[in-house]
Structure formats: structure tokens, C-alpha cells
Amino acid sequence: MPTQAIYTISDMRNLAEDVISMTFIAPEIARSAAAGQFIHIKCGHSRPLRRPISISDVSGDKLTVIFEVRGAGTRWLASRDIGRKVDILGPLGHGFGDTFSGGIIVVGGGIGAAPMLFAAKAAKRKAHSVTAVLGFRSQANVILTDEFDAVCDGLVTTTDDGTAGLRGNVSAPLEELLNTKKYGAVLACGPKPMLRAVAEMCAIHKIHCEISLEERMGCGVGACLVCACLMHNGERMSRVCKDGPVFDAKEVVWNG
Amino acid sequence: MADLHVSFAGIAFKNPVLTASGTFGFGREYGEYYDLSELGGVCVKGLTAAPRLGNPAPRIAETAMGMLNSVGLQNPGVDEFIRAELPFLRRYDTRVIANISGNTVSEYGEMAAKLSDAGVDIIEVNVSCPNVHAGGMQFGTDPRAVAEVTREVRRNSRVPVMIKLSPNVTDIAEIARAAEGAGADAVSLINTLLGMKIDVNTRKPVLANNTGGLSGAAVLPVAVKMVWQVRNAVSIPILGMGGIFTGEDAVEMLLAGADMVAVGTANFTYPDAPLRVRDGIAKYLDAKKIRSVTELSGAVEMH
């Protein structure tokens, strides 16, 4: 059951330029959140629309999100300080599955790495072997590698320009992993071209694949249909906020 | 506590706070947050004769104290609503207002007949959707077309007929009079105001549909003024909406001449917004020692 309440910021730090990690003391949300779910944050009085941000970690009563400053709303949020209060609705949405057999690969692209940390931890708690493949633009954009390293059995980092980890995107290392053994599932979040490449690779290797989609949202609870996307072979619409943000990759219409 | 009961077009409502069409789905989602029986009524997502997938994304853009949407009447169609959604809403002790949009005048009549038989309490006729190419606002900006649609729905419906008016007209009072003259039992206003937001970096409109409908707190003064105008033009009851977030916003709308109010965009900010509005009205009435909410309707004292 989602809660809407005012919560206090207990920790806040910059992970990279315009990428902020923010932790709230939010017991009701932290204790019921599942990997892949998001919280809907009100960003100041003049902005009626909340901002959906994926949960990247929970620990006891605390909940952490990592967000990129993209517009006026996230800039407002980034200007808060530790001790300030923020109006949050959550946890919302349908998260990653948790009934897999075998090893799990989590794939994160850019800021999309954030929810995958929660997914990696959740899979680890279920005693899965977890391998992370993270892709970033450049060394300056690399985030969370220490945290993934502490949780995962294997970690591969890539950057487009080769300034950190392997040069290129996540496709080559993912392909290599899928060729070496049979995994139980691939879970991914990141830019749409990356998700599409991951989904197509998993389809070829016949590996279950779940991806987290991003769309501009209104209500966040499934009522307003603002974030609806064409799914299921183009036959019907699904709401990213309620039916997603995590979908079975087979359901997604990539040209929709 | 003050009496919140209202009689509207001959139908008894437990309180004057409804949810605005298109912001509340068919009630299922917000029903997870509170008991829908707390509401005066639910105006359901706009229905069309055949299912519609709506417009491409992005369908939303935030603006100062408001938002633009271009959902484009995504809905499962009137038959699926009657089969799968109406029975769910009927489990609650609240009024159900079915909102309909037709491509043609006869389609409006056919939908009204089905919904009236299915047992909705009121039919709200959407002649004012700014986000669809056929039907919608093209009817609502012409008094003769509004009269024609109203007559057709009235002829096919056994329940009260409420015409939802577009603010995108030169004289909304003229449209309201046309609806009343053709037999409308009530009017609701305002639908969204046409608007556009441009991304200065890409030079493209944010909405994939280019333009959309503006709603939210920014439109409240426009809505209050138009409700007041329509109150002075017709004698049928008015459902007032547009930017209501608080009890005081609702009181303004009632004073301007509305008999009931609907809460729309505020649902997106606060899932329990309609209950906040209802409680805010009650608090105002108690503070002013007013016995019944009906005493507020049209009680504005003009300079």
C-alpha cells in the first residue's frame, strides 16, 4: 500500500556532476518497497506534477534514490539540504520479478544503474549469483561501481570513450556472458536503445529479460493514462507507472 | 457539522465533490487510497463508441501552476466500460457520471442509450475535448451543434444529461443557453484550455500532439469567471471545475454559481485531494456558521 507523507532528508551527496544520491527516513515506504519500484516526489509548491524516481536502495527505515538534474523540478530537489522535508508518494509501480532460477545479470546504463543496485541486492538476498554490467558515457559519469562490487559476484564496467573499464557499450560484455553459460534472467534499466539491444540479445539466447522503462508521468498511480505505451504486439496500451515501470521485454513494442 | 447534501438535476448527492473526467480513470486506482463511497460522485474517463489507444507520448507537460495533457481519449470503449468497470463502481455508495464523446451526433445518442440502460446516474456529454480530431471540441464551439447533440442525447437517455462546456469559445454563455434550450438538465465547466509548451533546446513542442489542454491551479480564475457567466445565463444546475485544489477554491466556485464541484489535476498531486476539498468546504461552512452547502451556490456579492 503506497503512502503519501512528508519525509526528512537524512543524507545527500553528489555522485557525479548533476547526479545526486538522496536518502530519506521513510519507514512506511522503505519497508514495503520492492526492487524496480519508484517514488513520486513533489518538487516545490508551484509544480503540481510529482517527479518519478526509481528507488536505488533501502536499509531499515531509510530509502535512497539517485537522480540526475534535468529540469526545474529536479533542480529544486537538488537544492534541498539534509534535514529538510520532502513530500513523497510511494512505493509505486510494478518492480522486477523475484522468482528466477539460476544466475542473474543486471544491466544498467547511465543513471539507469541506480535501480539495478536495489535489484542486485534483492537477487543476492534470494541467494542468486549476480553479475552486473554497467555502461556510462565517460569516466566522469561512472557511478556506484564500489556499491555493485560489494554486492555482485562479477562486475563489468564500460564507457563509450574507454576512459574507464572496457571501451564501448554494454552489448559486447553481455553477449560474452550469455555465451559462457545459461543465466536465469537479465534485468535492465537505461536508455531505450540500450534496453532494445539487451532485449534482442536475450531473445536470441532465450533468456528471460525484464526492463525498466521511463516515460513522463502524471498521477503515477495508473489513473491518468499520460504514460501509457503501446505493448503486446501493438494490441493494447500499458501504463508505465502502474503496469510497469518494469516489463517483460517480450511485451515491449520498440517502435511504438 | 454543516450539511453537505446537494440535489443536482433531481439526483441526491451526499456531498458536492466529484472527480473530474480523465483524471480518475474508472476509480480503481484511487480506490486503493480511500473508500470511493466518501465521494459525492465519480465522473469516469471519457468513453467513446469504439476503444481508442489515444495519442503518442509525451502526453504531458508541466507549466507554471498547471499542466498540459494530450492523452486523446484513450479508453476501452463504452461496451467494455459497462461490462468490466461499471459493476466495480457500483460496489460503492457514490454517484456514477458517464462521460461520452462521439464522432457523430448519432454516436452520442447510441452511447447515451446504452449507458442509461446500464444504470449510470448522469450522462456527461463531452463536446469539448481539445485532443481529438473528429468530434470533441468541434461540436462544443458551435451553439447549433451543441443543441443538436444535446437533443439527441436527451432523446436517448432516461437519466439526466449534463453538457460539458469548452472554455475555448468567444462566449460560453451562448453555448450554455444553447444546451439549456435543447433540453440539457445541467452543464459542467470548464474543460481544459488549449495550450502549447515549446522545448527551447529542441525547438519542438513538448507534447507529441503539439498542443494540449491546460489544467491545474493556473486555470481556476478562468473557471470561476466562466461559471459566474454561465450562472447568469441559464437556470439549470452547474458542475464547476478547473484548478480546484482546496476547500476554499471549491467555495469560490460555488459562490460563483456552481452547485457542485469536480476535482481534477489535484488528484495527481495528492491522491486524496477530493477528500481534502470536501473537508475544506465543511470547515469553511462551520467557521462561517452556514448550515448547508447549498446556501453558497451563486452567493457571490458583486461590486
What is the fold's blueprint, element by element?
The complex is a heterodimer of chains A (256) and B (303).
Chain A: E1 3-16, E2 19-25, H1 27-32, E3 38-41, E4 51-59, E5 62-68, H2 72-78, E6 85-92, E7 104-109, H3 113-125, E8 130-136, H4 145-151, E9 154-159, E10 166-167, H5 171-180, E11 185-189, H6 192-205, E12 209-212, E13 228-231, E14 236-239, E15 246-248
Parallel strand pairs in A: 7-8, 7-11, 8-9, 9-10, 11-12
Antiparallel strand pairs in A: 1-2, 1-6, 2-5, 3-4, 3-6, 4-5, 12-15, 13-14
Chain B: E1 6-8, E2 11-13, E3 17-19, E4 41-43, E5 60-63, E6 66-69, H1 78-89, E7 95-100, H2 105-118, E8 122-126, H3 137-140, H4 143-156, E9 161-164, H5 172-181, E10 186-189, E11 193-195, E12 198-199, E13 204-205, E14 212-215, H6 220-231, E15 238-241, H7 247-256, E16 260-263, H8 266-269, H9 273-287
Parallel strand pairs in B: 3-4, 3-16, 4-7, 7-8, 8-9, 9-10, 10-15, 15-16
Antiparallel strand pairs in B: 1-2, 5-6, 6-14, 11-14, 12-13
Features:
heterodimer, A: 256 residues, alpha/beta, Elongation Factor Tu (Ef-tu), domain 3, Rossmann fold, 2 domains, seven-stranded mixed sheet, six-stranded antiparallel barrel, 6 helices, globular, B: 303 residues, TIM Barrel, eight-stranded parallel beta barrel, four-stranded antiparallel sheet
